[in-house]
Design a protein that fits this description.
The chain has 188 residues and is an alpha+beta fold. It folds into two domains: 1-38, no CATH class; 41-187, Trafficking protein particle complex subunit 3 (Muramoyl-pentapeptide Carboxypeptidase, domain 2, 2-Layer Sandwich). Helices cover 51% and strands 19% of the residues. The chain contains seven helices and seven strands; from the N terminus they run H-H-E-E-E-H-H-H-E-E-H-H-E-E. The strands form two sheets. A four-stranded antiparallel β-sheet has the order 4-5-7-6, with helices on one face. Strands 1-2-3 form a three-stranded antiparallel β-sheet. Strand 6 (168-173) and strand 7 (182-187) form a beta hairpin. Helix 3 (43-55) crosses helix 4, helix 4 packs parallel to helix 7 and helix 5 (90-109) runs antiparallel to helix 7. The longest helix has 24 residues, at 58-81.
Length: 188
Amino acid sequence: MDEFKGLIEAIKNDSPQEILKYNPETSKMTLAGITVVPIHDYFLPAIFAALEGQIGPVARSLIIKYAREIGVKDGREVRERMLEGKEPTIKNVREASRSIFKSWCQVGWGKLVKFEVKENHAEISRSTSYEGEGYLKLGRGPAETPRCWIALGYMIGFFEGLLKRKVKGEETECIGMGAETCTFKIEW
């Protein structure tokens, strides 16, 4: 978790482009000390589609569950470090979540086009999505269900960790289904 502390500090002071580093000696890329790995944008969607083909809809549940767990840890860390453990105001929630999601989007998760956080819900849309676009690159045509499992799970978890309460969410539009955006509705 100390590496996440570096990310939080860097987000406060720098843009992701300034904190993304490549070390030629180790051949590692880091984002404020967190090792990140560039992979084809269709790599994970291909794994998820294969897993779904083998075990059915439970594949989606598993991916969302594990992404949610990471989001919870990150949300808790932000609450402790940025908010010093205090109960967040809606302004704090809006600022902290926007900083984190914008940072992840700037290094490849997609382009934020709508970011709205209200008293008991959030609606977030992105106009690009490695998960949705990656699925389309598999050549199977538009998906029948939303494909941004990691993004959905992470967002749910992040808000849970930040708010210290149960959160639910869904992806209501998905580029992988042919929509213009991937839109997430999160409620607490």
